[in-house]
Amino acid sequence: MRALRRAGIPISVALLLVFCGVSGCGRKSTQKPPKPTTQKVAIPLPEWAPKDPSPEFLRAARVLKPVPTELERQVVGSAPEGEALLARVRQTYPSAWEFFGTLDDRRIGQFRETKGIRIPMKLLTQEQRTAFDHWLECWRAAMKGGPPEFQDYLVLLYKMGAKDDLSNVDVGFTAKTAGGGHLVHIYFWVKAPDGKVNDLGTICAEI
């Protein structure tokens, strides 16, 4: 689907109040300080965020922003079939954000600096692979009954030359300039037997 190519860090503030007083008979009376209270910075969440977002989703929400409707329409066009496909793709955003949220600080920093991160599938951690597999399942569920060529993302990758175990596939995220911002895609690079690298991506956020 070529048309679909393409922090606040939580601040904890401890308030420690110690009250000291002197009684009328000269004895000091002390009051134990209350337990520190923690204030958390609210993270703006998109309207489609899960009711009980995972830590990975919240981690991603500190970096990513929802895609503005006008930018989405620049990608798929205004035709009814494009709008229908976009409605399905939107259902995959939460799982894509959860996958993004499994990246460690170093990789997130690299992504913010270079607008891209690329990881061989075989080097994904177990947590990352689980999140990736969850995204695949969400994609299948969202595309069920939709255009046949888009119903299974694995099939798309296999058609591009991916091996059964995806050992010749890299996965990551890219951010490309669009409409004054940067559209973020969950992105794939497939190393075909002839040495050519085929790539494919699907929008999931803005940054």
Describe what this molecule looks like in 3D.
- The chain is 33% helix and 21% strand.
- It has one domain.
- It is an alpha+beta fold.
- It has helices at 55-61, 69-76, 80-90, 93-100, 105-114, 126-143, 153-159; strands at residues 19-22, 28-31, 116-120, 169-178, 181-191, 197-206.
- The chain has 7 helices and 6 strands.
- A hairpin with a 2-residue loop joins strand 4 and strand 5 (181-191).
- The protein starts with 18 loop residues before the first strand and ends with a strand.
| Averaged pLDDT | 82
Q: How far apart, in Å, are the first and last alpha carbons?
A: 22 Å
Count of folded domains: 1
**Largest sheet properties:** 4 strands, antiparallel
Low-confidence stretches are 1-30
Q: Could you estimate the helical fraction of the residues in percent?
A: 25-40%
For the secondary structure, the number of strands is 6
Radius of gyration: 23 Å
Can you describe this structure in just a few lines?
The chain has one domain.
Give the arrangement of secondary structure elements.
Elements: E1 19-22, E2 28-31, H1 55-61, H2 69-76, H3 80-90, H4 93-100, H5 105-114, E3 116-120, H6 126-143, H7 153-159, E4 169-178, E5 181-191, E6 197-206
Antiparallel strand pairs: 1-2, 3-4, 4-5, 5-6
Key descriptive features of the protein:
two-stranded antiparallel sheet; 207 residues; disordered N terminus; globular; 21% strand
